[in-house]
Amino acid sequence: MKRFNHQAFAAVAALVLSAGSAFAGNPDRAGSAGATQLLLNPFARSSGWSMANSASLRGTEAMFGNVAGLAMVGKTEIGFANMRLPSAGLSLNTVGFGQKLGASGVIGLQATILSFGELEVTTYDIPEGGRGGFRPAMSNIGVAYAKSFSNSIYGGLLLRVVSESISNVRATGVCFDAGIHYVTGEQDNVHFGIALKNVGPAMSFSGDGLAVQGLLIAGSDQLTLQQRSAKQEIPSLLNIGAAYDWHISEVHRLSVAATFVSNSFTNDQGLLGLEYAFRKMLHVRAGYSYEKRDDADERATWFTGPSAGLSVDFPFGEEKKSAVALDYAYRTTNPFSGFHCLGIRITI
Q: What global pTM score does this model have?
């Protein structure tokens, strides 16, 4: 059975890699994708690594980086996170839920809302505003299922609905994620992971905001012209990651992680991360994001490189298997002078 599972893992990995061969970084398409909110990591714990730990993600947070890690939920896990860019007035709020269904696997739910605050209404005739405000809304909801096929192999699927709107124009799309996670080593300290993300059909905007009213040159009849929105692709990508844990002693652990991100609509990225853990209670981490480009002017992401994070876990219960954890992360950006992310996780 173990040999069969390893062969199955190799077959699925080969299939995902062959499907992802079309995802080689394409800077010529940068800026042409829609629903780019899907590229923002809403969770604090993995943001501190710059998402380099895609191969060792576990729990509800795995529904962003590699959904296969959801299969490692022990019983029930709930997570909340808030990311803020103070200088831009932007806020990203996320809630994640995972529930183990015995040997059948784990189901998960993730909801993310991106808030821009209230913006001024402007028109061609009144560019200075003064006609009230409106609130753009961006959100996505994902439903996931993950399962452990052996002590070494985990897999998962996620279906996500994406929504973007203003007062009179809106767009809705659907995409899916798929991931596999392989664990080996004497202490399960070697991790490999592959995740295919944001794969789905193109989406387009519709609504009254695309209509223009006017009068005929001769006569008083009024016509309404309905414009059509061009279709926009969802920003698909492929994550290939690896991680290694050094268990220095029973109370000290040092982990290194790396992830290669092959983007279909922008430059490829290389992510590196390092984490130190003390008694499984205090975690300090740092990461770096490298983007392949010829010079700084061709940078296609606002992340400028370094990141850092801190987590404190408070175990409780008779066997200390339940815990409440507080997470914090900071990532450097240009523009907007960096963002802060706070999170809380409850495992039962």
A: 0.87
Three-state SS sequence of the chain = CHHHHHHHHHHHHHHHHHHHHHHCCCHHHCCCCCCHHHHCCCCHHHHCCCCCCCCCCCCCCHHHHCHHHHHHCCCEEEEEEEEEEHHHCEEEEEEEEEEECHHHCEEEEEEEEEECCCEECCCCCCCCCCCCEECCEEEEEEEEEEEECCCCEEEEEEEEEEEEECCCCEEEEEEEEEEEEEEECCCCCEEEEEEEEEECCCECCECHHHEEEEECCCCCCEEEEECCCCCECCCCEEEEEEEEEEECCCCEEEEEEEEEEEECCCCCEEEEEEEEEECCCEEEEEEEEEECCCCHHHCCCCEEEEEEEEEEEEEECCCCCEEEEEEEEEEEECCCCCEEEEEEEEEC
Task: Say yes or no: domain 2-208+233-347 is CATH 3.50.50.60.
Answer: no
User: For the chain, what are the domain ranges?
Assistant: 2-208+233-347
Q: What is the pLDDT along the chain (348 residues), one digit of tens a residue?
A: 444 455 545 544 554 554 444 445 566 666 678 888 999 999 999 999 999 999 999 999 999 999 999 999 999 999 999 998 876 778 999 999 999 999 999 999 999 999 988 888 887 788 887 778 888 999 999 999 999 999 899 999 999 999 999 888 999 999 999 999 999 999 999 999 999 999 999 999 998 888 877 766 666 677 777 778 888 899 999 999 999 999 999 899 999 999 999 988 888 899 999 999 999 899 999 999 998 765 666 667 778 889 999 999 999 887 777 899 999 999 998 877 888 999 999 998
